[in-house]
User: Fold this.
Amino acid sequence: MHAFQSDPAETVREWLAAASSVAVLTGAGISAESGIPTFRGPGGLWRTYRAEYLATPQAFARDPHLSWEWYNWRRGIIATAEPNTGHAALAELERRVPSFTLATQNVDGLHDRAGSRRILKVHGDIWTLRCTACTREWSDRRPSLPELPPKCECGGLARPGVVWFGEGLPEDVWSAAVDAARAADVLLVVGTSALVYPAAGLVQLAQSAGAKVAEINVAETPVSAMVDLSWRASATTALPQLIQSA
Ligand code: OAD
Assistant:
């Protein structure tokens, strides 16, 4: 962790006040306090479930029903969760900053529900379905889908509109995230293990383009030592402090 003169909240508030362009990268940690499991921490999904059986194109091709059961189960958990004060603080920050971009690795939709407007979902959205035959995309917000695997109106098999291991990110979304990172005066990195690329690469991108980077995380990550400020705090502790006036 780098030394800073004042308390972390005050330091970041000063950066934000001077910034005309702010970018934020969020990960599963911001939704942890809403009751949604993370992937790698204690209780993390990848501690119990094997990604290669559930969240890869090969897994889906082999057993779409199994893959869908897992996504359906996660939809049920997410449907009962509410956005927390961390999500709300980012929505409020967006209203105050001239240029603001929120890139999220989360597929849960809690940033939308908290009122954020410019959201780049670099790993997709669990409420979106995409036809594997005709590529049509649609939204279905039912917590539990009645028929698994779901079908498109063309008869094709539908898949979750999320990015799986081994797949590329949606190109337009990703290039907008890269642009925002390069243009940012300040980047906030919240609740991500910063292990999954290319998303984690936004941190280095922003920093090498001159942004001040603050990490908010309950644990150390691979980017903790390189960022300008590594704030060891939970999202709901830290983020609301950034929108206080002093
Ligand atoms: P991870 O589960 O890898 O990391 C969650 C991070 O959140 C960890 O660094 C925790 O220390 C931190 N954390 C936990 N609770 C927190 C809290 N209350 N406040 C702040 N930080 C907290 O989740 P991601 O980094 O999002 O990909 O994982 C990246 C990608 O890996 C996901 O998008 C997903 C997964 O495989 C896809 O689904 C494509």
Remarks:
- The pocket of 2'-O-acetyl adenosine-5-diphosphoribose is lined by residues 27-29, 32-33, 38-41, 44, 105, 123, 162-163, 191-193, 195-196, 216-219, 221, 234-235 (CB under 6 Å).
- The first strand starts at residue 21 and ends at 26.
